[in-house]
Specification:
The protein is α/β, with parallel strands linked by helices. The chain contains 22 helices and 33 strands. The strands form eight sheets. It has a seven-stranded parallel beta sheet, with helices on both faces. It has a six-stranded parallel beta sheet with strand order 19-29-28-20-27-26, sandwiched between helices. Strands 2-1-4-3-5 form a five-stranded antiparallel beta sheet. 40% of the residues are buried.
Length: 797
């Protein structure tokens, strides 16, 4: 039988795929979408078979695929494989790396150092005195770690063995457990001495009618049951088997099923639109905070499930809270797959496999869940579609919201982008007819939007005390809310205690040695920390610059400092903090539950408090530093500030009690803040879109960012300049206007030890950008300098 061929994408930073020979024994199993074991550049790696029997390049001797790693279903079905290939092309990303990131991490086998016999070693097998190591390798390569170092050195020196990589098991495996099941009735009469029952008969009787029971559960009821179970198996009364066990991300915690509320007219119209079937349709569900968007999603998903189809729900990572998951479980039961980084790799693997097999038809997850293998996909929900976390900033720089639109179009599914503060791109797409707008203008039950007040810090200067970041109006509001027994949220998007540390003698600011970023003092850890590189150090007794002692001062404030000041200012208040330092693991769920039980009076937090939470007793929200994000060197700064402030303001007054929001600012006349105070998205969007049109920025153009980074500052700058010259020369031949900004150092010019420059290229159509992006590879890149292409960029810092 002749061998076939296969194209395999390997997870290395190279464009394209590579041809391999398919041995006859693997011909039936080697299907597109499967993972395969191959050798590439002397390495043993897991690749992805993307096509069969395409002609290889002429004159090339093909290496063979060594193994097919998917036993039953390919990792990617045909539709998902085609979708991932589209992403790789659009974002100019290596296909193998995109495929590796599109299935659960830790599930590919690993390569480990091994030993194999040379020709001399195989010949030595015939000798009576062949070394034990040589005999051990007679049946094939084995792990080097299995042998003594001296024996390996001697065999290597004699030319009997050679180093070779071999496959080792993947870190994440299917979890299995041994179970037993009674297949015969228990004894009718006791069989033990004196008419007493034997212990194995007691176990047997307990097993009857229980089905398959894990041996660990039997051991909880009957200590040391192994010998008794073996006897029952030998007698034929009980059978044993090894079965798959699903890791439970819900920790066995039950959730009572809820009763769907009655929808208002606007919600019913939205559900009717989203529950349609048969063809692609894109919607923007724009509803004020607390307007019941989640209820619309749940009703639409129920309609989709009722006809046997599947649904995918994408939410920002910080909005994927235990509270949100409980709400979906209360309505849909446990037949949902949850995919996010807070779960163990094993839990994510099990959820992915349940989807791939079709055991569950609803997936809810953060950005990477766009790759979830949902069968019969009919509905995609992107909640908080404006959130910047849907854009991947490392590796393959895809935008999950945009890819949701693409995946829905390819699948003939309905996609809905939900938010109270639509991205300007989505609003522009409504105007162009690419999306249809569905409005939820009111909160259910007659609850009113909170009253928003701008506190002018020029007129209301905070007292010079331990809490100089709290104005008198905000202090009074906190005191009044506390007296009424209601809850407050204070928002400051800076964690830590002090945001920078300065020497009062010479003005030196302590910075991260690997980043152009000041260090933040975390008092709880007693360390200065860089939030980008994780570098940390103790607070120095002397200034590192002028060497004076006692001159180091803590400046600025983060959530730790606010929490500390509130405890001193309001000693009877129960104050807690929600940020990345306090919400690790399962801590977030415990904090949420305490908030709902009203065991917390004031919750201080970063943007983690702005999304995914519905606390009915929160009636006051305070924003401590509204101006900070307006000053970012980013054309989206105003948009992001508006969205963030509206979202955090929406935490107030979500039940029947009215809400109040106090926003501290030095610039109350700023158009963005005025729009927030007036709950006026339309006015904000009109002004922002006019500004974007004048500047030639998205959504009125398409953008490509080219970032150059490396350890050598001069090489990075020279490469960026060379790319700039190349793009200007290449762009001169295009009929359509192209606008190149840069090259220039990025605002954070040093990050994790790498210097950074960038260029921004914009054009009215995509094709010229993609052609120029592909041409950048022609520019020589020296040493460790790296060039990254970012299509539709979001991060300019």
């Amino acid at each position: 039988m002749t061998s076939g061929t296969a194209e395999v994408a390997v997870p290395v930073p190279v464009v394209g795929a590579f041809h391999y020979r398919v041995p006859p024994a693997l011909d039936a199993a080697a299907r597109p979408g499967c993972r395969v074991r191959v050798r590439f550049a002397g390495r043993l790696i897991v690749g992805y078979l993307i096509a069969r029997d395409t002609p290889p390049p002429a004159g090339v001797r093909l290496a063979a695929i060594e193994a097919v790693l998917d036993d039953d279903l390919p990792t990617f079905d045909a539709d998902l494989l085609a979708f991932v290939r589209w992403i790789a092309t659009y974002y100019h990303a290596p296909l193998g790396e995109v495929l590796r990131g599109a299935h659960p991490p830790g599930t590919n086998e690993q390569a480990t150092p091994g030993l194999a016999l040379t020709d001399a070693g195989r010949a030595a097998l015939a000798e009576a005195d062949a070394p034990d190591l040589v005999r051990a390798l007679a049946d094939g390569p084995q792990a080097r770690a299995d042998f003594e170092a001296e024996a390996v050195a001697a065999a290597s020196a004699a030319g009997l063995v050679v180093a070779t990589p071999i496959a080792a098991a993947a870190p994440v495996q299917v979890k299995q457990a041994r179970v037993v099941r009674a297949v015969a009735p228990g004894p009718a009469t006791p069989r033990g001495p004196g008419g007493r029952p034997l212990k194995r008969d007691v176990i047997h009787q307990w097993l009857v009618g229980r089905g398959a029971v894990p041996v660990t559960e039997v051991a909880e009821e009957f200590p040391n049951p192994s010998a008794h179970l073996r006897q029952l198996v030998d007698e034929g009364s009980v059978v044993e088997a090894t079965v798959e066990v699903l890791r439970d991300p819900f920790l066995g915690a039950p959730v009572a099923r809820d009763t769907p509320p009655t929808l208002n007219d606007a919600q019913r119209r939205a559900v009717a639109a989203l529950a349609g079937e048969g063809a692609y349709a894109g919607y923007l569900l724009q509803g004020v905070t607390g307007s019941g968007k989640t209820e619309v999603y749940l009703h639409a998903i129920e309609a989709v499930l009722a006809r046997g189809d599947g649904a995918l729900v994408l939410v920002p990572e910080i909005a994927l809270t235990p509270q949100l998951v409980r709400r979906f479980r209360a309505r849909l039961g446990d037949a949902i797959a949850v995919l996010h980084s807070g779960l163990s790799r094993g839990e994510r693997f099990d959820a992915w496999r349940r989807l791939r097999r079709g055991d569950v038809r609803v997936a809810i997850g953060a950005r990477s869940a766009i790759f979830a293998p949902v069968a019969r996909l009919a509905l995609i929900v992107v909640d908080e579609e404006h959130d910047p976390s849907f854009k991947q900033h490392e590796g393959v720089r895809y935008h999950a919201r945009d890819m949701a639109l693409v995946r829905a179009a390819r699948a003939g599914a309905v996609v809905v982008l939900g938010t109270a503060t639509p991205s300007l791109e989505s609003t522009h797409n409504v105007a162009r007819g690419k999306l249809r707008r569905l409005l939820l203008p009111d909160r259910p039950g007659g609850a009113a939007l909170p009253r928003v007040e701008l506190v002018d810090l020029r007129a209301h200067r905070p007292p010079d005390d331990a809490a100089p970041f709290l104005s008198l109006p905000l202090r009074a509001a906190l005191t009044e809310t506390l007296a009424r027994g209601e809850q407050s949220i204070l928002f400051l998007n800076r964690r830590g205690f002090s945001t920078f540390v300065v020497c009062e003698a010479c003005g030196h600011v302590l910075q991260c040695p690997e980043c152009a970023i000041s260090l933040t003092w975390h008092r709880s850890r007693r360390r200065l920390v860089c939030h980008y590189s994780d570098h940390s150090m103790a607070l120095p007794a002397r200034c590192p610059s002028c060497q004076q002692a006692g001159t180091i001062r803590l400046q600025g404030q983060g959530t730790e400092r606010v929490e500390d000041a509130l405890r001193a200012l309001l000693p009877t208040a129960r104050v807690e903090r929600l940020d990345r330092d306090t919400a690790g693991g399962r801590k977030l769920e415990a904090l949420e539950q305490r908030m709902r039980r009203r065991e917390i009076d004031i919750l201080v937090g970063t943007q983690m408090v702005t999304k995914g939470h519905d606390f009915p007793d929160v009636t006051l929200v305070g924003v401590l530093a509204a101006d900070a994000s307006l000053q970012f060197p980013d054309f989206r700064a105003g948009e992001r500030t508006f969205q963030l402030l509206v979202q955090v303001a929406g935490r107030a007054g979500r039940a029947q009690r009215p809400g109040r929001v106090l926003i501290q600012t030095y610039n109350p006349g700023h158009p963005v803040l005025q729009a927030v105070a007036g709950h006026d998205y339309a006015a904000f969007a009109q002004q922002a879109l006019d500004d974007r049109r004048l500047g030639g920025y998205p959504p009125f153009s398409h953008a490509l960012a080219i970032r150059v980074d490396g350890p050598d500052e001069a090489a990075v700058g020279a490469t960026a300049q060379a790319i700039g010259r190349h793009l200007r020369a290449e762009g001169a031949g295009h009929a359509l206007p192209l606008h190149l900004r840069g090259p220039a150092p990025m605002p954070i010019s040093l990050l994790r030890g790498r210097h950074r420059w960038s260029l921004l290229l914009t054009a009215s159509q995509r094709d010229p950008l993609h052609r120029l992006a592909a041409s950048v590879a022609a520019v020589p890149t020296p040493g460790e300098t790296r060039v990254v292409l970012d299509v539709d960029p979001f991060d300019f810092l």
